[in-house]
Amino acid sequence: MNHFLEIGSFLDEYPWKTVDINSGDFVVDINTGRINVEDSSVSRINCSHLIEHLDYSGSRNFFREIYRILNDEGVASIVVPNTDSNSWWKGFFEHYDLRMNAFFFRSISRADSSQLIDKTEMWPDYDGHPFGMLMGYTQESFDFDILAIKSFNTKSYCLLEGEAKRYVDLNLYNTVDSYRVFLKKRVPNCEVHSFDYMNHLVQLPNYEFLRDMDYVFTKVRAFLDFSDLAINQFGTFANHRAYMHHQFFYLYDFLEKFDDIYASLEKEFNKFAEYDKGKNPEKMIMLRSSIDLCRERMTLLLRNIETFKKLPGLQASI
Hints:
Layout: E1 3-7, E2 17-19, E3 42-48, H1 56-69, E4 70-81, H2 86-89, H3 98-110, H4 113-116, H5 130-141, E5 144-152, H6 162-170, E6 178-185, H7 197-203, H8 207-232, H9 234-238, H10 241-276, H11 281-309
Parallel strand pairs: 1-2, 1-3, 3-4
Antiparallel strand pairs: 4-6, 5-6
Helix pairs in contact: 3-8, 8-10, 8-11, 10-11
């Protein structure tokens, strides 16, 4: 039997099997565990932004497992960040890239009020260079053939303006947010045929739509957490008006784009439903509910903003 398998990309709305610690169809400690899938039974594996969170032994276990479960013609698509890029380390995408905002707002929403303003920098929790680790493992282990490597950036690059965009344009390497690497397991006496990258993408479910959707959900949740915190701990925030102005500027920028973003999600959902053809009604219902929940959270966020505007002494700062 052929399967499409998603491993550890932190979403549970997929209409296919997922392996994840957060509500996946299978829950596995990928550092040491065995994925509950038969040997040589999977034709497509998709994994995005997982292996950079594993230590060395965990990453080796991950590759051993995907080698075991891929069939001889199977392909694994693995996305890893380009952590050498200034888009990660120097903050040029920080207020445009939805993930970076998510990291930042999650950190402050869990912090004590005394730590909120002191946390002036947010660094990704990666050690080393995941792309280099991935290449090193695949080339040294002789377990996989690399069919293709595609670099890409997030949509955030298109939103850069002014000095940040000019700086990044001087070195296009810094626009490379991530790499997608296509691997085929090396099988004795099995020739590697030419790899049709575009045909492979057509065979994949519309995964990029789900990533975009998760970014939007995460950002809405993050801004909602932030606005709740700003209202509930007004005394702390009122003493840092420059900080508040800074954060609300990007919040308003996001709100201006939300209607277009939401319309795009609706359009992509309809395409996704057409692809699914009614094979997974329960998960499609979950997906529909998630999109509706996103709209409800936006309503709450707008209400919080109106409340915040009425708080004394801040009208001039936002």
